[in-house]
Design goal:
Chalcone isomerase, alpha+beta, 181 residues, 5 helices
Length: 181
């Protein structure tokens, strides 16, 4: 779903993007909370559009406490990527946010590659953050897989929401409305 081309020194201007204004019903149901759009942005790399991102959160969301809150991060891809490319880039970016050994990295990469499909331009991948439990992935509104590991989930979503993100402008764009009452 979520992290194609993240380990490539990306910049992320908060450009206009047009992900759907509604979450697919299956995604919204899995979130277990009423979610509203918090922000959106476009990730580019050396001028190439990679994906549009949209963050859906419960009211009162605080990015500094993202690991303890339910939310959905949805990416609409602007390029084709294999599941293997997405999982490799994700693990590379996750290392910016916490240490884990090679054996753990191998397990997570295999789980992520199994949970995600290859994506084509226009495909939507959504990751449902289930605090303390794991991540459920949806491809174009259909269940794609999950990684049931709280540490993986925290580090995975830190790619976009953590302070050490490689795309701080995208983080800002995603969380622009995140401090709603």
């Amino acid at each position: 779903m979520l992290a194609a081309a993240l380990g490539l020194g990306l910049s992320a201007p908060a450009g206009a993007s047009t992900p759907s204004e509604r979450l697919p019903a299956a995604v919204a149901a899995q979130a277990g909370a009423e979610l509203v759009p918090a922000g959106r942005g476009r990730l580019t790399w050396w001028g190439f559009e990679v994906y549009d991102a949209a963050l859906w959160t419960a009211r009162g969301f605080r990015v500094e406490q993202f690991a303890s809150q339910p939310f959905v991060l949805e990416l609409t891809y602007q390029r084709n990527f294999s599941a293997a490319e997405i999982s490799r880039a994700s693990l590379q970016e996750m290392r910016r946010h916490g240490a884990f050994d090679a054996a753990q990295a191998e397990r997570w990469q295999a789980q992520l590659a199994a949970a995600l499909p290859d994506v084509q331009r226009g495909d939507r991948l959504a990751g449902v953050h289930r605090p303390g439990q794991g991540t459920t992935f949806f491809h174009n509104g259909r269940l794609a897989g999950e990684v049931a590991d709280a540490q993986f989930t925290r580090l995975f979503f830190a790619i976009w929401l953590g302070e050490a993100t490689s795309a701080p402008a995208l983080r800002q764009a995603l969380t622009a409305g995140g401090a709603r009452p």
